[in-house]
From TrEMBL:
<comment type="subunit">
    <text>The methyltransferase is composed of M and S polypeptides.</text>
</comment>
<feature type="domain" description="Type I restriction modification DNA specificity">
    <location>
        <begin position="236"/>
        <end position="408"/>
    </location>
</feature>
<dbReference type="InterPro" id="IPR051212">
    <property type="entry name" value="Type-I_RE_S_subunit"/>
</dbReference>
<dbReference type="GO" id="GO:0003677">
    <property type="term" value="F:DNA binding"/>
</dbReference>
<comment type="similarity">
    <text>Belongs to the type-I restriction system S methylase family.</text>
</comment>
<feature type="domain" description="Type I restriction modification DNA specificity">
    <location>
        <begin position="24"/>
        <end position="197"/>
    </location>
</feature>
<keyword id="KW-0680">Restriction system</keyword>
<dbReference type="GO" id="GO:0009307">
    <property type="term" value="P:DNA restriction-modification system"/>
</dbReference>
<dbReference type="Pfam" id="PF01420">
    <property type="entry name" value="Methylase_S"/>
</dbReference>
<protein>
    <recommendedName>
        <fullName>Type I restriction modification DNA specificity domain-containing protein</fullName>
    </recommendedName>
</protein>
<keyword id="KW-0238">DNA-binding</keyword>
<dbReference type="InterPro" id="IPR000055">
    <property type="entry name" value="Restrct_endonuc_typeI_TRD"/>
</dbReference>
<dbReference type="InterPro" id="IPR044946">
    <property type="entry name" value="Restrct_endonuc_typeI_TRD_sf"/>
</dbReference>
């Protein structure tokens, strides 16, 4: 069933006169809405007990594809389950467009029903489906839609705003050449990305194994062992001690509300958050924010060499301060007593990070409290042996970290993809042919019909 039919545009209304940038002569600029068919409605059939439903959660927004539609009983169908999708449609979530919940509907998902949270883009014949798909994935399109968002809780764009996007339209043959070129380049980039991911995964496994050997005493020549908690074996002269008894654990502070009050920031006191710790590679050597005197008065300045541990969002990430710094209550600072080496504790927390996450309740944002962290039992050798273990681990992991540097190329690959798409929609991939009939002629033909 069709929704209310869109107003048929004239050729003059469909053509964009003020071109955003120059494109080849046989290309045209047009409003997206003038190149799409009217969306159609489809309700789950009572003939079936279940149906496949595509909502935002079903989209892999890192790779812009349908990942896993939900299987829902027809009698429990949500009211939003009413968008018909056909093979070749491009679906685009109008809620928070910057999240890139976009997908091309393939044969596998042509019988699904989509949420009304998607705009269903179905070409009227002027655009090839894959050309439209890559166009909507481009930075230009995402930035435009993001700039048009309205609303506080679930910022979104309206149908009319979505259809107002100005897009470059090449001849059909050129669209296909562009798609072929994009996919050829992306295939090579994706293969490179797979190799990088394999290297990263291998690094993480080796890193875990190396740290485990260090924390269990294997790297320092210990032979005599005893069975300890949960069948974990450690040298007989080591002890299991609660974290609370190894030094001072103290949550960061951020008492003032709202947290984004401008008076809190832009002073001389460094301020870090959980993301800074997660991306630190072990040591805090830089910061993005600072607190003012007003901000400092509601926080606390922790001293250099404090071990920082995240207890909310990304639980169990650790880093050591290389200078005095403030942080919020989603981070715990640990100051060791005279018999404890901070870097040894750093390695132990790295090892048990996943275990810490299991203590977090299933809430919207996972977190653990100071009591859980303080009761964590840690296998402790003498200070001399702690330092020896740290030296060995530092050396081994320094060599391994050379492999991890490859993962930095992953960000470069995504930038290259964005650059390729930008060039594609400017006609700069070297695929354009002046012999192709102008896209204007095809648009005239399509608009002359009653679509």
């Amino acid at each position: 069933m069709r929704m209310a039919k869109k107003k048929q545009l004239t050729l003059e209304e469909a053509i964009v006169k003020d071109e955003p940038y120059e494109v080849p002569e046989n290309w045209i600029w047009s409003k997206l809405g003038s190149l799409l068919k009217t969306m159609t409605t489809k309700k789950p059939s009572n003939k079936n007990e279940f149906f496949q439903y595509i909502d935002i959660d079903a989209i892999d927004n890192k790779n812009q594809r349908v990942a896993e539609p939900k299987i829902i009983k027809v009698k429990e169908a949500p009211s939003r389950a009413s968008r018909e999708v056909l093979e070749g449609d491009v679906i685009f979530s109008t809620v928070r467009p910057y999240l890139r919940n976009i997908a091309l509907i393939t044969d596998e998902y042509k019988d699904c029903i989509a949420s009304t949270g998607f705009y269903i883009c179905r070409s009227n014949g002027v655009l090839i489906s894959k050309y439209l798909y890559y166009l909507l994935c481009s930075e230009k399109s995402i930035n435009y839609f993001t700039s048009m968002m309205k609303g506080d809780n679930s910022p979104s764009i309206r149908k009319e705003e979505f259809e107002s996007l100005n897009i470059p339209v090449p001849p059909l043959k050129e669209q296909q050449r562009i798609v072929d070129k994009i996919e050829s380049i992306f295939e090579k980039l994706d293969k490179s990305k797979e190799l990088i991911e394999e290297a990263r995964d291998g690094f993480e496994k080796r890193k875990f194994s190396i740290i485990y050997k260090g924390i269990s005493g294997d790297l320092t020549g210990n032979k005599k062992k005893m069975i300890a908690h949960n069948s974990v074996m450690i040298p007989i002269h080591w002890k299991w001690i609660k974290f609370n008894d190894l030094g001072r654990l103290e949550r960061g502070r951020s008492k003032h509300r709202p947290r984004n009050d401008e008076r809190l920031f832009n002073g001389k006191y460094p301020f870090i958050q959980t993301g800074d710790i997660a991306n630190s590679n072990g040591y805090i050597v830089e910061h993005k924010q600072t607190l003012s005197e007003f901000g400092l008065n509601q926080s606390k300045l922790f001293s250099k060499d404090t071990l920082c541990i995240t207890i909310a969002a990304n639980i169990g990430d650790v880093a050591i301060l290389t200078y005095d710094c403030c942080f919020p209550d989603s981070v715990v600072g640990f100051t060791p007593n005279e018999n404890v080496d901070s870097k040894y504790i750093y390695y132990f927390i790295t090892l048990v990070k996943r275990d810490l996450e299991h203590f977090a309740p299933s809430t919207a944002q996972k977190n653990i409290n100071l009591k859980i962290l303080g009761n964590l039992e840690i296998p402790l050798p003498t200070l001399e042996e702690q330092k020896k273990i740290v030296r060995i681990l530092d050396k081994l992991l320094e060599e391994e970290s050379k492999i991890k540097e490859l993962t930095q190329l992953e960000d470069q690959i995504e930038l290259i993809k964005k650059s390729i798409l930008a060039k594609a929609f400017r006609g700069e991939l070297g695929t354009n042919s002046e012999e192709d009939e102008s896209a204007l002629e095809l648009l005239k033909e399509i608009l002359s019909k009653d679509i």
